[in-house]
Design goal:
about 250 residues; mainly beta; nine-stranded mixed beta sheet; four-stranded antiparallel beta sheet
Length: about 250
């Protein structure tokens, strides 16, 4: 009887120890959505109004091309809707639990839900010669309610730019050499992989201009060329990967 009691006691001790060790292993693990981790450096806390009671709060994060808001329907939107996309990560402990940029699930608007994490993507052009996409991570702490009880916004944490090194070894593009006629104005679209990392495309000249069409594509167009043929380069830069060069050659009118 005594041996059985000791055996049961030891079994309970070992099981408890295993649970304790397992819990310790998960502590401060950003990839575990139930683990509490510190906010990343550069985290900003802001109370965002949704416009139902006062003016809408517009946020323009670092390196982003324009701002994002919470609409009256309590969805995240871009101030220019075509230049923003969002994806929900689901319920998390905090902003630090957002560690990856998803490759699917993106939409121009997503519901704002307390204790949910999100990745946002702002894409556009900073000039005729440079465009790209910047990612940020967002965490909704809680709704803000009016005295009457209606939702008028949310307390939000965000950090931008959200850099994630791509697992790819190189940038792959749909075309590396493009020949165009002397007549300008017609856009040419270039797609590439991977897209889940902050990137930019830069033109070497003013007559070949760029803008972004989606998270993994951009277009360029050229001005009329009334002289002899000429060439330009478009350089795609992505953190952790070699630059990719695209050569654009425009025929001359003469």
């Amino acid at each position: 009887m005594k041996k059985n009691f000791i055996f049961v006691l030891m079994s309970c001790f070992l099981a408890t120890s295993a649970l304790f060790i397992s819990g310790c292993d998960d502590k401060d693990d950003p990839d575990n959505p139930t683990s509490s981790v510190s906010d990343p450096e550069g985290t900003i806390l802001v109370s965002m109004r949704n416009g139902n009671n006062g003016g809408t709060t517009s946020i323009t994060p670092d390196n982003c091309y324009n701002s994002f808001i919470i609409g009256k329907d309590d969805n995240f939107y871009g101030s220019w809707e075509r230049n923003w996309k969002f994806v929900s990560i689901g319920k998390l402990k905090g902003l630090g639990n957002i560690t990856k940029i998803p490759t699917s699930g993106w939409a121009s608007q997503v519901a704002v839900i307390p204790e949910y994490g999100y990745v946002g993507a702002s894409y556009g052009a900073s000039s005729y010669r440079m465009a790209g996409t910047t990612y940020l991570r967002i965490y909704v702490m809680d709704y803000i309610e009016s005295i009457g009880g209606g939702v008028i916004g949310a307390d939000v944490k965000y950090q931008s730019p959200f850099h994630v090194k791509s697992e790819a070894k190189e940038i792959t593009v749909s075309e590396t050499v493009v020949n165009v006629s002397w007549k300008g104005g017609n856009p040419n679209t270039i797609t590439f992989t991977p897209f889940n990392a902050t990137w930019t495309v830069t033109s070497s000249t003013d007559w070949c201009r760029v803008d972004v069409t989606d998270l993994n594509s951009f277009y360029f167009w050229v001005l009329d060329n009334n002289g002899s043929s000429r060439s330009a380069t478009l350089t795609i830069k992505m953190e952790g990967l070699p630059d990719k060069i695209i050569t654009v050659t425009q025929a001359g009118r003469n």
